[in-house]
Amino acid sequence: MSTTVKIKLPQPDDLDAVFYETVAKTGKLCIQHCKDCGTWTHPARYYCPECASENFAFEPVSGDATAHSFTISHFTVEPAWKDLVPYVTIVAELKEGPRVIARTKMKGDEITIDMPIKLDVEVIAPEFSYVWAGKAEG
Ligand SMILES: [Zn+2]
């Protein structure tokens, strides 16, 4: 029998807070995009890693990605997650370039490195959203 335990939400700050606020406001995965050279960056930085510009915005991305890596967690110390183990976490590489950590409902034996996946977001609070990875259509 499981009990309901409230998940403790992360409290992002600085540019991480801006990232999550933009995702919550738009309902879309929005990544930092340099307005001077077009580089996509995640996690967000105050200066573009390519051209050092401070001129950026958080803009929606395609969600098209590949599975760069993944791990299967069989243990958690977080009480709210105990009913979820084992669960899979994916390092997804977006078509735009940056890598993003994502949850998935896929099992470990359903995932192969470099397989196409699709990312989407689930807004659970104004200051935090989950990024979900699923199988790419087609
Ligand atoms: Zn740039």
Short description:
By secondary structure, the chain is mainly β. It is built from 1 helix and 8 strands, in the order H-E-E-E-E-E-E-E-E.
Write the layout of secondary structure elements.
Layout: H1 14-26, E1 30-34, E2 40-41, E3 56-60, E4 64-73, E5 87-94, E6 99-104, E7 116-125, E8 128-135
Parallel strand pairs: 6-8
Antiparallel strand pairs: 1-2, 1-3, 4-5, 4-7, 5-6, 7-8
Zinc ion binds next to loops.
Strand order of the largest sheet: 4-5-6-8-7
Query: How many structural domains?
Result: 1
Q: Count up the helices.
A: 1
Using the coordinates shown, work out and report the CATH topology. OB fold (Dihydrolipoamide Acetyltransferase, E2P)
CATH-scheme architecture: Beta Barrel
Succession of helices and strands: HEEEEEEEE
Average per-residue pLDDT, rounded, comes to: 94
Overall geometric form: globular
Helix/strand class: mainly beta
What does this structure look like?
The chain has a single domain, classed as OB fold (Dihydrolipoamide Acetyltransferase, E2P). It is built from 1 helix and 8 strands; from the N terminus they run αββββββββ. The chain has one helix at residues 14-26, and strands at 30-34, 40-41, 56-60, 64-73, 87-94, 99-104, 116-125, 128-135. The chain is globular. The termini are far apart. The mean pLDDT is 94. Residues 34, 36-37, 39, 48, 50-51, 53 line the site of zinc ion.
Q: Descriptors for this entry?
A:
binds zinc ion; mainly beta; 9% helix; OB fold (Dihydrolipoamide Acetyltransferase, E2P); five-stranded mixed β-barrel; 138 residues; three-stranded antiparallel sheet
